Amino acid sequence: MSGIHGEKIKVSIFGESHGPAIGIVIDGLPAGMTINTAAILQEMKRRAPGQNLMSTPRKEKDEFIIQSGFFEGKTTGTPLCALIPNSDTRSGDYSLLKDVMRPGHADYSGRIKYHGFNDYRGGGHFSGRLTAPLVFVGALAKQILELQGIKVGGHIAEIYGIRDSLFNPLGENEEILNSLASKTMPVLDDEQGEKMQDMILKVREQADSVGGSIECIVQGLPAGIGSPFFDSVESRLAHALFSVPAVKGLEFGAGFALSSMLGSEANDSFYLEEGVVRTKTNNNGGILGGITNGMPVIFKVGIKPTPSIGKQQTTVNLAKVENTILQIAGRHDPCIVQRAVPVIEGVAAWIVLDMLLMSDTKLMVK
User: What is the pLDDT of residues 166-203, one digit of tens each?
Assistant: First the structure.
């Protein structure tokens, strides 16, 4: 297997859910960058478990230890390594799962792939715990992007049929984007957020789970970033976004709704505004021919329900080679969508920064 991705900003994530630590190695960060560690910690806290009844009771602070690539307050330009210790593990909760496969999890496919040598505790390397390093690299990338006037933001678009308002496709107010990051339920319409929260708590009482979708916007990107076909903006983002556990769908701009439009409705008409080329609509999500057109890049991801639920489910016991019934114990999220928002933002920020560097854009660093 390979845990490495990226062209200019190469990222390697490592560790298991119940190992001593998880972590990340980032190669390609520009030298001389001041790292705002408080801002990174705040991003990590947005994803961290155990903060309320809508997440798993497992309590991890998601504090990090920078091991290398950082000296006297600045990046050195050499690989930056950060460790995120695991402190609240209960591996005994998973002893049964060595042979009994959890529906919806990677237990079976992982066992086949790695011939039974995979760490099955808490999902091991397949666990959503491994999204914490992605938030770390995303937080760093956001700091660099903001110096270039590029802003990344996200919100919960839907949870189990309860829908939030959507971003303005022509560009969202930066104050609104900033406010989302401080919310337990990052939504534009707080009334809908309360309904979502009630739904999550309801399914928690029923020993079940729900999924939803997240909308993300990247604004301030110049036109001309990306390539046609295999290194298109959509291709690069899709590759990384589908690497986030539980992501099962992705659409850019109007997405699948474009298939039911006329060409005259779907096309984004151009016009000049103070000498700058813009479009009157943004159905294509800021991307044409795989290349940015200067409008905000907007996409939505679909997140499946947490597969660990307390209800009885049918499965198989591979040691006994027989059908069986499983009722999962342990600590699990009734919904992971609200915690996934900073993950999706982080992945988008990392890939956008990587693509900027591939285009030879000269970056400002503090």
Answer: 999 999 999 999 999 999 999 999 999 999 999 999 99
For residues 241-245, average pLDDT: 95
- Bridge partners of 278, per DSSP, are 271
Spans of all domains in the chain: 92-358
* C-alpha 216, offset from chain centre: 10
State the Rg of the chain over Cα.
Answer: 21
- Architecture category of domain 92-358 in CATH: 4-Layer Sandwich (3.60)
| H or E segment and range at residue 200 | helix 190-205
Q: Give the 3-state secondary structure percentages of the chain, helix then strand then coil, rounded to 5.
A: 35, 25, 45
Classify burial at 358, counting beta carbons within 10 Å of its beta carbon; exposed 0-12, middle 13-18, buried 19 or more.
middle
Residue 89 has a pLDDT of 62
| Non-local CB neighbours of 142 within 8 Å, separated by 6+ positions | 39, 43, 152, 345, 346, 349
